[in-house]
Structure formats: structure tokens, C-alpha cells
Amino acid sequence: MKKNTIMAIILIVIAISIGAYFIISSRLDAKYVPNYMLEDFYKKPYKKVGVNEYTVSKVSDRDMVDTYFRTYTNMFFEDLGMAYQKLDSKFREKKYPTLSSFKSFVSSLTNDFLAIPKIKSYDIDTENGKTIYSISDTRGNIYKFTIEAVMKYTVSFE
């Protein structure tokens, strides 16, 4: 009985070895050589950024345009007074001298709250050391963002 179990174990080991040999050789014949890296099996834990450390990230022009446009159009719903203050002073005096006149313009932009303005196209220029984003929305309105520093900007409409 003991010899039979030992013989069965030996035959199973031999069968597994022969099967593994054929599987490996068939993959090598097909020029399939896996390129495993340690990261495939072990994910590194997320490291918190400490004091005076930073993570490098690449921000595209499209990301910046989206951020400015989304931030400003969200002000229409959250804080219309802040959106009014972000208007270029000369443009504000000429086109919308009062907050109520600006409210009527914004209500035409956001006539139904499900159709928030979306970007159709954009153009980026520089003038006097300031970056200017000209953004056209899907309704044909053109927003002109004049950026002095990060998130320090003024807006005018064309």
C-alpha cells in the first residue's frame, strides 16, 4: 500500500513536469517571452507627500482652459456677485454697469440649469505678459479670460 502511494506521487510529479515542459516550450516556440516586472506582482504603497516635497504633474493647455471656464461658469450658480467682480473693470462699466443687468445676461446663458455652457473651441494668446484664453461655448458666446497669475484673472465677453 505504501509503495502504491509513493509510486502514484512519483507519476503525478513526472506528469506535471512533462506538462510544464510542453507548455513552456510551446510558448517559447511562439516567441512569447513574458516580461514581468516586480510592479506586476507587488504594488508600491502610495507615499504621502511630505513638507517641501511635491509630485510632478503635466498640465495641458486644455486642462487649464477647462479649469478656468468651469470655475467661472460655476460662479453663475454659486456666487453671482463674485462672477460679476471677476469681470474686467472697463468691460463691466461699459456693458454691465449694475449687477441686475449682469443677472439678466447670465440668465440668458443658463436658461435651463441642465444645459450648462460647454467649451466648443479655444484659442490662447499672450499680450503684455498676460495669457489670454478666448473660449467659445456651444451657444456661440465668447469668453475672454485675461490671466495675470494662477487663478487671478478677469473676464470679458465678445
What distinguishing features does this structure have?
4-stranded antiparallel β-sheet; alpha+beta; 47% helix; 158 residues; 20% strand; single chain
As a whole number of angstroms, the C-alpha radius of gyration is: 32 Å
Tally of helical runs? 6
Helix content: 40-55%
For the biggest β-sheet, the strand order reads: 1-2-3-4
Distance between the termini: 95 Å
Query: How much strand content do the residues show?
Result: 15-25%
Q: Please tell me the overall pLDDT.
A: 82
Q: What is the total tally of β strands?
A: 4
Coarse morphology: elongated
Show unreliable segments.
none
The major beta sheet can be summarized as: 4 strands, antiparallel
Structural class by helix and strand composition: alpha+beta
In terms of quaternary structure, what is this? single chain
Walk me through the structure.
This protein is of the alpha+beta class and about 160 residues long. Helices cover about 45% and strands about 20% of the residues. The protein contains 6 helices and 4 strands, in the order ααααααββββ. A 4-stranded antiparallel sheet has the order 1-2-3-4. The protein starts with a helix and ends with a strand.
